Amino acid sequence: MPRDTGFPRADAENDFLRARRRQVLSRLAAWLRREPDDVNIMLPFDEVVGALGRAGERRLGLQVIRLDTIVGSVDRTRDFDRRFRPTSARVRERWQRLALATRRGEPVPPIDVYRVGELHFVQDGHHRVSVAHALGLRTIEARVTEVLTRIDPHGIRFRGDLIVKDYRRIFLERVPLPGAARAAVVVGDPWDYAELGEAVEAWGFRLMQDEGVLLDRATVARRWYAEEYLPVVRMLTQADLVGRRTDAEAYLWVIGERYRLIRTHRWDDEIINALRVGARR
User: Fold this and answer.
1) Per-residue pLDDT tens over the stretch 40-57
2) Residue spans per domain, the chain
3) Are 41 and 162 in contact (CB under 8 A)?
4) How far apart are the C-alpha atoms of 74 and 44, rounded to whole Å?
5) May I ask the CATH architecture of the domain 8-149?
């Protein structure tokens, strides 16, 4: 807890001024470093769940959670930054009242949060979280509701990360891969998920033409992964053509090159050498 003067009301006022000053300095530092705008922006709960796909929820009851896992809000993203520092004087009166109560040791109600993966989003209690941060606390009591999602929330740090998750969710709806296959097919550029989805659907269309049967999406996805994706990735790995790409990125690259170079699945030394030259460009 910050050093106090022995006058709780004055200390609470200083706490708020200190938090505001840190928020302004943080914005200035981000500008000087030319960091993306979303670095200091609180994650919006609805956008996160929308990108991941809501699958259900369950109440977990009262728990003690770490303050550093609270990264977003249901509806107060403008009043506080990513570290719950106040962004204006609009919240000052209530903030200082809670800071004063905390400094006096008065009981403060638990907050209400949604849990998505390991992240927490405040439904009620934004000022309490902000005060706890300002006073150097590490944990806080919270009533937790866990939200289950169709896409793993791991890897979300900033608002921009939601774009990748959203495109991945749509891709997996188009290409419902099972189990390990689902986790294995990953790209970094969100647009690549759209391109990959089209490639799988085109492959499935050719498969159905060849076999003269209609196949559902799950069957196409399973057979594409086993009969097309894995053999191609295996050949790319053996030819040392994956490089710094993910396997899925390497696959996307080489199917584009395949049509440009040979229009077939012929993988002789001449073609491999041509691909190596292209990979270095």
Assistant:
1) 677 888 888 888 889 999
2) 8-149, 175-279
3) no
4) 6
5) Alpha-Beta Complex (3.90)
